[in-house]
Amino acid sequence: MERTLSIDLHAWRLGHRARRRNGVRLFAASVIVCACLSAALATWLPLQLSIVTVFLFAGPHNWFELRYFLMRLPVRFGKSRNFFVVAFAGIGLLTAGYLALPLLYNFTSWSSDAWSMVLASWNTLLLLWLGLLIWLRGKNKQRRDWSWSIPAALGLCSLNWLAPELFSLAIVYLHPLAALWFLDRHLRRTRPEWLRTYHQCLVMVALLLAGIVFRLIQTDALPDDNGLFWRITQHSGAQLLPGVSSHLLVSVHLFLELLHYGVWIVALPLIVPATIRAKQKPNRIWEVKTVGIARHPRGFPKLVGAALLLGLCVVAALWFGFSIDYSTTRDIYFTVAIAHVLAEAPFLLKML
Amino acid sequence: MKRMPAFCVLCIVLAAGGNTYADIARPSPSPEQPKIIFHTSMTVIPDKNARDARLQISQDSLNELKAALANTSADNSIRQRIANSPARTVIAGLCLFLSLSIGGIWLMRSAQPRGQKTVAVLLLGIAVVGAGAIITQANAGPPPSFQWRNLSQNLNANKPTYASVDIEILPEGYGMKLVVPVKNQ
User: Which residues on chain B are in Cβ contact (under 8 Å) with A124?
Assistant: First the structure.
């Protein structure tokens, strides 16, 4: 009897290990294929792919982010109350301030230096908010002193005041990388044995990025003779960095954006549960009860359902807007999308 | 009622003053400063057999000059933005001061005795490097004008003079000028 049980247990262990190995392999293969394909397409057709990518994935990736953030939101804030109050107040105020900038631009005739001051002020508020969030997060952690965040934020403020436009451009390029950090933290919690493979994939991503730079550094600027192409090159910093080929800038930004969309739309919601829980019932993304604050007895299932439904409506409205007037919808989207850029900060900090 | 004439006089004076001020000519714009785009060297060679003055540039120098010309617009725009905004520079300095002050206080308060030793070693290292930089700077070579000091004697003696030169782009004018530093002996 014992012998039979032992043999069964051994077989189960072997099967479990094999499933894990297959999961890691599938995950690594997916990352490698996606990264290589993204790099090749971003290098080959940067402007065209940028248009298609934003059209298809901009809205859905925001919906998946919303769902992920709702999943990570606690039912009761408890000791983290101050942290979340500062986080949500900051997201609201900074988003409102950012939305006011184009309106101010239309109704005032300030000089470029005055605009630099306004931009630097907004960046300063953002940095001080981030510094405060890190400090508050550190207060909730034992044996950790994160007070360094305040002098670090002030040091970055100093750099920001020297060249605010370049600082804003740095945010444009750094924001897509936050998704890779989210995935790192997610794997650290759910599948720590995958981390080594994931870090190796990140090295490959860095090599691909270096390859794109090496390949495109001497290329001519992209044609930006129509309004839409001009918008895309400006978004990537072609005006701020005239010494760098706009082809390189657009391709690098597009590559990072594709990785960003890939993590939010494919990796986090699909790959991880599908490969881990081969025999378990997978979480269906449209089920409201899969979100913690909706499933909890003291949770808010109706509110969560309404938020997700509203998100879907916004995605549909974005697609409709892109179909009617792509350029204007793109401008509006990238202005409003600052909210999701800001929202990533507190949720990432909560995972640290 | 007596105030009415006084008020009218005041209005006339203000209106006249406004017109007078409006008639003042605009201040003439300050002349645009030349931009240094390239630093290289030059040899002045007096040649008794030459029929005309010649400016000889090596191919490498010409290529470097072209590259410098291509990059100058971008480089200057960033540099000018920083240089032309004293308010932003002051705020940046203030932020840096606050960052270093608060960071220093945090280091001293948070560091363990072992950590304090590390910080002390770090500060000592920075001080040594700083002192080294000052000493090196103090021992730096003579200014570029020193190389031009014997130009007139060399020209008289028909000898070449080798010295450094900055290539500047002038917004106005025609042709080339060679401005040589001359010190009264």
Answer: 95
**Which helix (H) or strand (E) is B161 found in, with range?**
strand B161-169
φ and ψ at B36, to 5 degrees? Answer: -80, 120
Which one, of A337, A317, A313, lies nearest residue A325 by Cα? A317
SS (H, E, C) B71-117: HHHHHHHHHHHHHCCHHHHHHHHHHHHHHHHHHHHHHHHHCCHHHHH
Half-sphere exposure of A14 toward its Cβ, with a 13 Å CA cutoff?
Answer: 6
Domain that holds residue A319: 2-350
The reply to whether residue B96 touches residue A155, judged by beta carbons under 8 angstroms, is yes
**Domain count across chain A:** 1
Contact B88, A120 (CB under 8 A): yes
User: From first to last of its 352 residues, what are the pLDDT tens digits of chain A?
Assistant: 455 555 565 665 656 566 666 678 888 888 888 889 988 988 888 888 889 998 998 889 999 888 888 888 887 888 888 888 999 999 999 999 998 888 888 787 777 778 888 889 999 999 999 999 998 888 887 777 788 888 888 888 888 888 888 888 898 899 888 888 988 888 888 888 888 888 888 899 899 999 998 888 878 878 877 778 888 888 888 888 877 888 889 999 999 999 999 888 888 887 655 544 444 555 666 677 777 777 777 777 788 888 888 989 999 998 999 888 888 888 888 888 888 888 888 888 888 8
Distance CA A54, CA A260 (A): 12
B57 reaches A (C-beta below 8 A): no
ipTM confidence:
0.74
pTM metric for this prediction: 0.68
Distance CA A222, CA A243 (A): 13
Give the minimum alpha-carbon distance from B110 to chain A in angstroms, rounded to a whole number. Answer: 8
Nearest residue to A208 (alpha-carbon basis) of A255, A245, A257, A244: A255
